[in-house]
Amino acid sequence: MTNARYDVIGVGNAIVDVISAAPETLLQELGLDKGVMTLIDAERGEELYSAMGSKVETSGGSAANTLAGIASLGGNGAYIGKVRDDVLGKVFHDDLMKTGVDYRTPLGQDGPPTARCLIFVTSDAERTMQTCLGISVQLGPEDIEKEAIEAAEITYLEGYLFDPPEAKKAFVKAAEISHAAGRKVALSLSDAFCVERHRAEFMHLISGHVDILFANEGEITSLFEVSDFAEAVNLTAGHCEVAALTQGEKGCVVVKEGATHEVDAQPVENVVDTTGAGDLFAAGFLFGYTRGLELQNCGAIGTLAAAEIISHYGARPETSLADLLAESNL
Known about the structure:
By secondary structure, this protein is α/β, with parallel strands linked by helices. The chain has a single domain, classed as 3-Layer(aba) Sandwich (UDP-N-acetylmuramoyl-L-alanine:D-glutamate ligase). Helices cover 40% and strands 22% of the residues. It is built from 13 helices and 14 strands. The strands form 2 sheets. Strands 6-5-1-9-10-11-12-13-14 form a 9-stranded mixed beta sheet. A 5-stranded mixed beta sheet has the order 3-8-7-2-4. The chain is globular and about 55 Å long. The two termini are 22 Å apart.
């Protein structure tokens, strides 16, 4: 493909991660179930945010993490996702722009607050997460910027955003614009629970609008309602052009036109936090794909990026992925 301003444009849930060290007594006072992720409403979100001590605030969200990874590799990316014109909305906007990603969505002037994942970390390193999705889930077709989609070689859709009806319409609109411009569409299934809730609709979206599918073992077996990963791999043929399917420490399998390519995981001396591994695998794979590399190499760059992210806390690269790639001779 030619004349693309962006390698990839992502569409997803715009969330700010707010991390704070917390004593066990604070969790008890706030009535939080330790080690559990709970969805909360905006009012509860504001209450808990105010109760947190010293905070570290960084932009998050699956697709945004992927775009940050692409930028770290030296690629050009853009992002569509809704935040409010509030303190955390500005954190998200500024943080993402600093990574080199072009954030395309104007800050919302009304409606719910910016989505936030409030993470209380106790002294034993246990994370207790309270997530308010806020305005992020109000993204709809009107937020899909035609010119930006047309300018991207690949439009990348985040499965986490698939719940609301308007978001489904936004996905289809983005895919149709992308294909009309001669571009490609990628989808991450994001979560097995998302797949279970929307299996038929996901299948319709994949078969009709998706060229490149990302899923882990749990997600792809859930999609096809089988227990065997190899069977799920075989079933992807005919539904999309390429499927990149990850298996954690076993690496990944890339499928195209019935042919499979197995790629080993990169060795990691100390796995610290697996958060964002799938997001960064997608970053590496798409970076390679937009440069016309062989699928085996795309998968290898994906595993390289995933290995960096699981070697530390957080879902954004701490080491330049471009430097790691240069050293790897991939």
